[in-house]
Amino acid sequence: MSQLRALKEQEEHRRDQILADRLNRQSLQEKRIVTQLMQIRKEKDNIRENRILRQKQYEKEREREFVLALEREALEAKRKAVVEEILFKAKQDKRKQLLQERARQNYEKHYQICHSIILQMVDLSTKIGEYRELTQCAIPVKMIRDWKLLFLFNKPLYEDSGLVTATEEEEEKGEGEREKGGEGESVSLQSTSSVDDKNAEADDILDDADLQEYLQVTNEWSSDITECPHPPNMVLSHIVYRLIELVKPPQPPSNPPSLPKFYLKGSFVGLPFTGKTSSLKYINETLGVLILSPNDLVIKAIEVYKSELTERYTSGPASLSSVEEEEEGGEGEGAKADSVKEEEGAEENEEKDAEDSKKQSPFE
C-alpha cells in the first residue's frame, strides 16, 4: 500500500511538473506573442508615421514642381510673346517695304507711261511743225495716218541713227575702262542691233496697215462712184442680162392645181375649263383663223331677236298688230307646210310598199 501511495505521489508530482512546465511554456509563448504584437504595433505606427511624412514630403515636392512648372510656362509664354512681337514687327516692316516698293514701281510705271506719251506727243507735234515749215502746205492723209499709227503703237517717229547723248557716252566710257575692248565692241553692236529692231518693227506695223487697207478696200484703195460716175451702157447691160438668162434660165410657171379651192375646217373639243377659248383666241390673233363658237352664235342670235322685239314694241301699236299678223301668218304657213310634208311622207311610204311587194318572191 505504501508503494502504491508512493507511486501515486510520484505520478501526481510528475503530473504537476508536467503541468507546471506546460504552463511555463505557454506563458513564455504568450509573452513572446505579446512582445511580437507590441513590436508589430510599433512597426505599424512607425510605418503610418513614415507614410504621413512621406505624403507630406510628396505634397511639398508636388507643390514645388507645380510652382516651377507655372514659372516655366510663364517664362515660355513671355518668350513666345516676345518672339511673336518681333516676328510681327518684322512682318510689318516687310509689308511696309513691299508696299513702298509696289508704290515706287507703280509710280515708275505710270511715270514711264506718261513720259513716253508726252515724248510721243512732242515728237508728233514737232514732226508736223517741221513738215509745215519745210513744205508750207498741208500734210498728206497717208502720212498723217502713218504718224498716228506709230503714235498709237508707241514707236519712234524719228529714225534712230544710233547716236547717244553725253551722259550715255560717259557711261559707255566708264564701262569701257572697266571692261576689255572686245566686250565694248559687243555692247556697241547690241545697241545698233536694238535700233535696227525698232526701225524694223515700225516698218512692219506700217506694212501691215497698208495690207489691211488693200484687203478691206479702204482709204486710198476705195472707189467712190460719186466722184467719177460712169454713164449707163445699155448694150453692156443687155449682154449681161442675156448671159444671166442663158446661165440661169427662168423657171416656167407651175401648173395650177386640179383640185378646186376648199377651206379647211376643224373642231376644237375638250373638257370644260381646259383652256379652249383662250387657245382659240390666241390662234385667231396669231394666224387669223375664223373661229365659230356655238355658245357665242346662240347668244348673238338671242340678242338680235331681243333687239328686234324691243324695236317692234317701242315703235307703236301698229307694229304690234303687224307682229301678231306675222305670227299668225307664220303659224298658218307652218300648218300648210306640215300638211304638205305629211302628204309627201304618205306618198313616199306607198312607193316603198310597192317596191317591197315587187321584190318579194312568189314562194312566200
UniProtKB/TrEMBL annotation:
Residues 333-343, 355-364 have a biased composition (Basic and acidic residues). This is CPC1/SPEF2 domain-containing protein. InterPro entries: SPEF2_D5, Sperm_flagellar-bone_growth. Residues 313-322 have a biased composition (Polar residues). It comes from the Eukaryota. It holds the Pfam family SPEF2_D5. It comes from Amphimedon queenslandica. The gene is 105315636. The lineage of its organism: Eukaryota, Metazoa, Porifera, Demospongiae, Heteroscleromorpha. Residues 23-156 form the CPC1/SPEF2 domain.
